[in-house]
Amino acid sequence: MLDYAGARAVAMIVQTGSFEGAARVLNVTQSAISQRVRNLEERLGTVLIQRGQPCTATDAGAWLCRHMEHVGMLEEALLEHLPGLANPGDVQRVTLEIATNADSLGTWFLPAVASFAQQSGYLFNIAIDDEQHTLDWLRQGRVLAAVTSRDRPVQGCMVKPLGRLRYHATASPDFVQRHFPDGVTVQALAEAPALMFNPKDNLQQAWVRQVFGQSSALFCHSVPSTQGFVDACRAGLGWGLNPAMLVTDHLASGALVEIVPKTTFDVPLFWQISRLVADRLQGLTQAVLAAAEGKLERP
């Protein structure tokens, strides 16, 4: 039989970031929380919590936290029909782990999460990764749903197409004059500084292949921020692909220019969600699809 007191302690430590925070939420002593976790780790023969500031889940702990999310949703559904089962003063909240790419978070995704959170009362922990890698979070059981660029479903998940996030390859006018005086070529791109979100980001290289039919080695500044990308381009730090939603006004004013006019780059996006929670989180899926409908390009 699963030790739910221990499992709930693990989940709450991860949610609050500390043993003290978990004790406060669960209304027990910190030593009781420590004992519950220690007993469960000894029983399973593996570490569940990475102690630190904040405390985080190990891979095994993450699987346990996802299970407790399922349990929390099932308990909420039960209490809707049998409210007398609720303990007096019980204010525990279900936290949902989901993943998305930074550019979606910075443009269209947050209103969908906010809409559903207001209706459901759920809390959210949103993980950020490249759209080609958010699928790994689903595959590893670390999240229940994700925005991804992959249309092939992870085992146990369902897929909904969202649309295409459109990008412009932009830079400041001064940057273009300095680095591309004779026009943008593969050789010029190999010498001009570009931007990348992190080492996983290959959008700039993909745009080069689309426009020029070949790859180019790029020297890149690392700017791990969607808005930071726009600001870095405006400041002349480098060139990079920015979501159309964030640069339309800058292109209209001349603060930014397309380094090669009319060469947009579209990234298809999909919503993947675990079938185990798809029915319970149907409202979240509907909110995500509605938000995407108004912001993303249609195929």
**What is the annotated CATH architecture of one domain?**
3-Layer(aba) Sandwich
Number of helical runs? 13
- The radius of gyration is 23 Å
**Which fold name fills CATH's third level, the topology of one domain?**
D-Maltodextrin-Binding Protein, domain 2
Percent strand: 15-25%
End-to-end Cα distance: 49 Å
Describe the overall structure.
By secondary structure, the chain is α/β, with parallel strands linked by helices. Among the domains are: 1-84, Orthogonal Bundle (Arc Repressor Mutant, subunit A), CATH 1.10.10; 165-267, Periplasmic binding protein-like II (D-Maltodextrin-Binding Protein, domain 2), CATH 3.40.190. It has 13 helices and 11 strands. It has helices at residues 4-16, 19-26, 30-44, 59-81, 102-120, 134-139, 173-179, 186-191, 203-212, 226-235, 244-253, 275-278, 282-295, and strands at 49-50, 56-57, 95-100, 123-128, 145-148, 157-171, 193-196, 219-222, 240-243, 257-258, 265-274. Helix 5 (102-120) links the parallel strand 3 (95-100) and strand 4 (123-128). Helix 1 (4-16) packs across helix 3 (30-44) and helix 5 (102-120) crosses helix 13. The longest helix is centred in the N-terminal third of the chain and has 23 residues, at 59-81. The protein is elongated, with a radius of gyration of 23 Å.
Task: Please tag this protein with its features.
13 helices; 299 residues; seven-stranded mixed beta sheet; alpha/beta; D-Maltodextrin-Binding Protein, domain 2; Arc Repressor Mutant, subunit A; two-stranded antiparallel sheet
